[in-house]
Structure formats: C-alpha cells, structure tokens
Amino acid sequence: AMAAQMTDAHRRFLQVLMSHGIMEGSEARKLHRCCCEIHKVYYAHDKLDYFITTINSHLQPLFMQIRKGMSEGDGRAHYALVNLAETEITKMASDYAENELELFRKTMDLIMLSENGFASSTDILNLADQLKTKKMKKKEAEQMLKVFVENKWLSERKGEYTLHTRCIIEMEQYILTNYPDTARKCNICHSLAIQSQVCESCGTGMHLPCVRKYFRAQTEPRCPQCNTTWSCDIP
Fold first, then answer.
1. Are residues 56 and 117 in the same domain?
2. DSSP 2
3. Nearest-CA neighbor of 118 among 178, 150, 164?
4. Vertex 87: Cα angle to 110 and 129 (nearest 5)
5. Which of 43, 50, 167, 194 has a CB 3.0–4.6 Å from the CB of 117, allowing a cystine?
C-alpha cells in the first residue's frame, strides 16, 4: 500500500518532536491538534497514532522512527524520536567523552542489576575513580550525572537514579541484548520494564503502573501467567 502523504502538519509535528527528543502523550495530542489547525489539515482527535504512522512511513528510509513508550513512574504514554541506524550507545558517543560514556554504562549496570531499578548516587560516585578509560573526580562525576539527567538519559529522585523514559524507549533493544538475564518485558503492556514487580513463582514481570491497573479490580491478586498469589505489595 502507498504510504499516506506527508503534509505540512506532519512536518511541523516532526520538527517540534525532534527539538524535544521526547514528549508526553497529552503534549503530543495538543501538538497534533495545533499542527492540523495551523496547516488546515483534517484533524481527527483519536487518530494521533495513525498520524504518526504516516510520519514513520516517510522516516523509514532515514532509519528513524517515532516510538511510543510508557513512563515507569506514572504510566503515562510518551513519544520519542529514535534513530535505528546506530546503536544508541554509539549515538551517545558523539556527545560524550569515553570516560563519561563508561560512567553511564556502569550506572546502567547498577540500575539493571538492582532489585528495584534504581542506583544510589553514592554507589554511582564510587565508580568515578574505578573508570578504566580515565578516572574522574567525584565532583566531575556529580556534574556528569546532572548532564545525563538534563539530556534525559537518567532521571533522579531523592538521590536515586533510574533510566529516563526516553532512554528506555531508545535503548530497548540494546538493553534486552546486553542484559538478557535481568531485562524483561512487562507482561501487560509488553514494553521494557526496569522498575517492576516480579512473580516469585514464574518470574513474570510487570511495571508498577501496570500492576496497579491490572490488580485494581482483584480482591486476591494472582499472577496473570501462572495464577499463583502475587507476593509483592500492590503499589
């Protein structure tokens, strides 16, 4: 089938998303409406995903794609522009020095191997003088963590760091490949789950917002996979 035509509304949407890198669902819906109104293109309020599919069909030859993902904190949808041509770490390599990249990789290790999908700033800063590429002073590492947060690779809450939604959407394949034992997809929404609860019997994992939604109506929460009683506290 022929791809639907790109209009100026599509182009504007793409430009704004490119400048943000990632956008929350409600913002994307507002932008969709705004672009259609400015360029007098037919606007269907429930057709954002279709509108994005049109953009994606034209981005394909450029190895780019707008992907939808979920914030692990509040379960809200997000849209991010992803480069499919280069693995994400190589993409970061053009922005960061080798030892900064190594600090990021090691931080990712801590997050991925943790119980709850977070790494404490203390543990991360202890890595600074163990870097193989070039050691970092604690102050430099602290500054670097701020930069990773500003650039939406990490997010921080009370001195604990986790992967930003943008990072999870962009790096899903990299993470699944590099952390085959700990990376898992959410049993409910099927996207990558970093902060998750896991069934003790069968290892099925779910995002916290998905756990909340899934068990909302159940008096005795049971695993959707193996039906044993869900052992974690429902958030």
1. no
2. P
3. 164
4. 35
5. 194
E-strand spans in the chain? 22-24, 64-70, 77-83, 119-120, 154-157, 160-163, 184-185, 192-193, 196-198, 205-207
Query: Which range marks the domain in which residue 142 is found?
Result: 89-177
Q: C-alpha 24: how far from its chain's center?
A: 12
**Mean pLDDT computed over 195-221:** 89
Q: Flag whether 115 is in a domain.
A: yes
Sign of CA dihedral 61, 63, 64, 67: positive
The verdict on residue 100 lying in a domain is: yes
The DSSP call for residue 227 is -
Same domain, yes or no, for 104 and 160? yes
- At 50-78, the pLDDT tens digits run 999 999 999 988 888 999 998 988 889 99
User: What pLDDT, on the 0 to 100 scale, is given for residue 195?
Assistant: 86
Q: What is the pTM of this model?
A: 0.84
Are 144 and 95 part of one and the same domain? yes
